[in-house]
Amino acid sequence: MSGNTLGNLFAVTNFGESHGPAIGCVIDGCPPGMLLSAADIQPDLDRRRPGTSRHVTQRAEADQVEILSGVYEGRTTGTPICLLIRNTDQRSKDYGEILQTFRPGHADYGYWHKFGIRDPRGGGRSSARLTAPTVAAGAVAKKWLKEKFGMEFRGCMTQLGELPIPFEGWEHVPDNPFFAPCADVSALEAYMDSLRKAGDSCGAKLRVTATRVPVGLGEPIYDRLDADIAHAMMGLNAVKGVEIGDGFATVAQKGSYHGDSPTPQGFASNHAGGILGGISSGQDLEVSIAIKPTSSIMTPRDSIDLHGNPTVVQTKGRHDPCVGIRATPIAEALLALVVMEHALRHRAQCADVQVDTPDVARLG
Amino acid sequence: MSGNTLGNLFAVTNFGESHGPAIGCVIDGCPPGMLLSAADIQPDLDRRRPGTSRHVTQRAEADQVEILSGVYEGRTTGTPICLLIRNTDQRSKDYGEILQTFRPGHADYGYWHKFGIRDPRGGGRSSARLTAPTVAAGAVAKKWLKEKFGMEFRGCMTQLGELPIPFEGWEHVPDNPFFAPCADVSALEAYMDSLRKAGDSCGAKLRVTATRVPVGLGEPIYDRLDADIAHAMMGLNAVKGVEIGDGFATVAQKGSYHGDSPTPQGFASNHAGGILGGISSGQDLEVSIAIKPTSSIMTPRDSIDLHGNPTVVQTKGRHDPCVGIRATPIAEALLALVVMEHALRHRAQCADVQVDTPDVARLG
Amino acid sequence: MSGNTLGNLFAVTNFGESHGPAIGCVIDGCPPGMLLSAADIQPDLDRRRPGTSRHVTQRAEADQVEILSGVYEGRTTGTPICLLIRNTDQRSKDYGEILQTFRPGHADYGYWHKFGIRDPRGGGRSSARLTAPTVAAGAVAKKWLKEKFGMEFRGCMTQLGELPIPFEGWEHVPDNPFFAPCADVSALEAYMDSLRKAGDSCGAKLRVTATRVPVGLGEPIYDRLDADIAHAMMGLNAVKGVEIGDGFATVAQKGSYHGDSPTPQGFASNHAGGILGGISSGQDLEVSIAIKPTSSIMTPRDSIDLHGNPTVVQTKGRHDPCVGIRATPIAEALLALVVMEHALRHRAQCADVQVDTPDVARLG
Amino acid sequence: MSGNTLGNLFAVTNFGESHGPAIGCVIDGCPPGMLLSAADIQPDLDRRRPGTSRHVTQRAEADQVEILSGVYEGRTTGTPICLLIRNTDQRSKDYGEILQTFRPGHADYGYWHKFGIRDPRGGGRSSARLTAPTVAAGAVAKKWLKEKFGMEFRGCMTQLGELPIPFEGWEHVPDNPFFAPCADVSALEAYMDSLRKAGDSCGAKLRVTATRVPVGLGEPIYDRLDADIAHAMMGLNAVKGVEIGDGFATVAQKGSYHGDSPTPQGFASNHAGGILGGISSGQDLEVSIAIKPTSSIMTPRDSIDLHGNPTVVQTKGRHDPCVGIRATPIAEALLALVVMEHALRHRAQCADVQVDTPDVARLG
After folding, report:
1. A205/B contact by beta carbon, under 8 A
2. Between chains, do C32 and B350 touch, taking CB under 8 Å as contact?
3. Where are any strands of DSSP class E within chain C?
4. Of A4, A26, C197, D277, which has the most beta carbons under 10 Å away?
């Protein structure tokens, strides 16, 4: 496929630009018979939506999703589901300057050399706005995985710029604009306020998990479950690192410590993050991602123009000072989409497999 | 594709098991007309080969590659290239015990639940031995990319267990069994000796780079260049983390620091690792991976048997006490395969694109 | 991919149902920089449009295409192009009877067993209305192939039911509602009138060609150019046969007659239809397809209900008495899409190939 | 995929050349746990093997298949199955003349323009010898489909050159070298003898069927079951036409005649060949293919040399005077591979679907 599709059996094809008439996606391969309406999708879109706090971009987008196909009388029919989100707040402005220069840290330079043309309006195709259709598709996958396996997908922020965030409990996540798993976010707010004042931006680290994962998902070589998770996560705007389980900490671990022992009472630990040999063990999936600081900042920086001459650029407009803040629902959606793909793929090849061995992860 | 193929336009399909008659791969999509013989492939296989120092498994495999198809009178014909490596040192032994239990940290448990059958001989399909065909295919990609663009792929170890390894220069890498970029590896040797004595294992961190990367490779959404690199790397046995450029360090960076400024003298820095918005900037690709400690250790560990009853397992046989030691050529190969795929894909869509803007990465 | 996508490098993902809010497609992989507007697409949609003569369905659809993405300031950007066509004339009616029975010759029975749910409104996903997005995508491919290679795609009807149609010249095709290449279509009109009076339907045979085809398109085994053409054509509603070149007539030919001799003045004949060994020879592509009689007829027929009990069904509503009549532009579009895919694929693998041998097809 | 792979979930990647060291394929996606040995595959290879009668090429190839991977203790493991067939009878000869000219009707000219290099030894990659791995893979699919659904695949010749062959019964097929379904093949033998004496060749028409087909296989648009069958069949060497059910005869049929009525006693007819709307109806699949006359004939013919100058070519060596004679087992294999792909795909998406409607095809 030509680059804008995620998955094969549950294939999500993404289209649109930040300031075009609409963005959206087509989901091909959704199992038939599932109850589905916009109300199942909208809550996750609302969690990702801009303009919900002073720490994110003030662009006002309702992000209302419309189901154009694939659903009849409230149920999926097994045919392609087209989800459409109209862009409504595309401020008109002069893009001449943006088109003449390249913003450091931005996709501008690569797009220009690749395509020889670029849509400067709000970043065009490179805008993080294009994660909205991913979130919408992820909501469909989440629903099916929940109904079929009882799976739950959750995410939270574990570090904001230089500030590590303590994990106090999932219950705190919905109550603050950072998706932080702690009660007091005043330090985070102060940090963001000072950044915004300085015209600068920062990165973030997120954690995403899935529970009640079926055991046996993933292919032995190349298309492993962890490989596909890494692909999906690193395919998200601004992500520069992906970890499964203990991730980079495993480098300094000993084998005698790292190996998670299965026991009759469940696995004794989960250093592997729920995946061994590329295949799910049935334990919770544990994924971490690093998100770089937003490239669009008010601070002037050196760059070049279209002809290679030196110039200085300064980004204006509405931007998230930390793109990681709104990324939690996106990372959850990506994890759900990968699991969905492998759940369907597993049925294709292994639907007849039966073993007597208990699923010890369910006991843990 | 059904999981064992990497790439679409330069598609590498991997087959074989550790102790079956042979392992190998089929490369579909190699451009025609390139001089190719086993001598182009063998050096990288030799770098990965077991038995070359006391710090790796003592299995004696010549890993001689045979080209079965796709080459006529020394040149690639554009048709599928089958590369075959016969297994020669498959020691016969009793696998009954392995089949009755699950080794912690191993793929056993997932394979069993997924397939309902597993090949216990040396890990079967889950063995790191299956990376040899990947290395062979990577050598073909490396050759084409070198001839076409002058690209070079290099890798080294940057941490062995708890020991960080200083980067003193690429010239040291070929002279020691660790692919360490430093002159003195005595501390690394002592560390490995003590580990082996303790019947334990450790992890490693590797760095891989590519130079003279064409600008403009990668697709905007989902199949970004970094996403496909992450997929390939995380698909390598025992990898638990992938970073592009500054990776997880970007979390604490400010936007004003992170953004790499293009200047008429080249890019001023390379925090992004050569990829912006999923598309290569022409700068060097910089990738880091975390490899977990080997799961096969002599230390007894708790586990369960096929019926879920508690048991104790102790791995015997020949194993690498740090699978990261031999992984450098594999990681290089994977990076080359991903770049090759995107180089071909780029020609498909964008062969007609021409821009006047200089390629500033070439000036850096 | 999950079934509703045609092509890989020029990938067209089709969505929608006959009476849903909209139908459309996403084209992923279109080369950047091409001028493109709705005006380039609309003419082919208009040729396929219902309601243009008394011999086709009287459903009144404007079939106005809207470009939702992938075009900036009138040029393709290399990112996904979403084409949307709103459905406007979806007559409301009671579908209870249709849902309780299976119409002979229709997709009903298979859809029901496959999906367990079906959209009865105008045939839902199985409606020939879903060929409109294919035509729209084909218009984009046609434009690129015309600008790049000077290619032209043409089609005509060669048989209507029992009536063979003489080929008098392409110039007649646009002037009659049958896409017939002859001046006098009064016999065809009389035939259709009598069919309609009888409440019956008939089949048709079409011919499609492409000129100025580049030599060298197609893959040796499996994904041959002719194989992909056959796939595309047989994937069109109601098609039951596909021929390349002399097709079924080759069975009774001798090798000494069939082989098309290349000569310095061009190929001496074109029995092969422009494809040898799965690869284009540069001669005109010649394809024929058989289209079965429309299944929706007024004549009552035996069938069963949902519970397997005998019943009689009689189709009402607006239907084409010969679906082949409007199929010519669709077949042209499919041929263009397949050629486009292979043209892009060829550049990926073989962009560097140069031979001195003249392209004799250009002399013919 | 890069052209040499058939299928996605049951993906067969074909490699090799007529006179290289070996030919073969890798099957990725075979369900685990099925008993499989070379003895399951060899019978179909033997049916296709050269040298079995005076009417086919006298090349002496044992075509012994070796299973290199994917099977452990006699059962498939769910990992890639590599099937290898060593070439043994590659006569050495001078290919200089072949390389300087283009044989009419052959792939030479297209290969040369596409790849800029060609392997002249026995046709290299374009040889019909490459259908042997397809037959081997098809045998694996047939076995699974037989065990799972009781499916049977059968084929026969229905026309040899100008001679139509009456269908007297399947029992005659194994008893003659033509796969003819009749008792007396003396006319066919005389026809072939006279052709051989004349140094000429002829075409053939074949019929392939599948019984006990599951209802509901195939995707609505583009990847329909019939589309994928057409793709597979037209991808077979020398095929120029494909029909499903009544094929081209449907053009002159009326809708009132063509539609197959489901009744409580089974379908009343099978004009559709078991596929409606791209989805299997559960009736027998009925496919016909047209195979052109062999291009390699002793008769001298006009052609050009590498520089475009006129020349005369005359093919020598061992060739089948009618390639259709050995094609029956290949066509069966291709049909089995397509059904296998769709059977696995169906489970992925629709494993949970249950309807009460009886499968009337099973009553027919």
Report:
1. yes
2. yes
3. 5-6, 11-16, 22-28, 65-67, 71-72, 75-76, 81-86, 152-160, 163-164, 204-211, 239-244, 262-263, 266-267, 275-276, 279-280, 285-291, 301-304, 310-313
4. A26
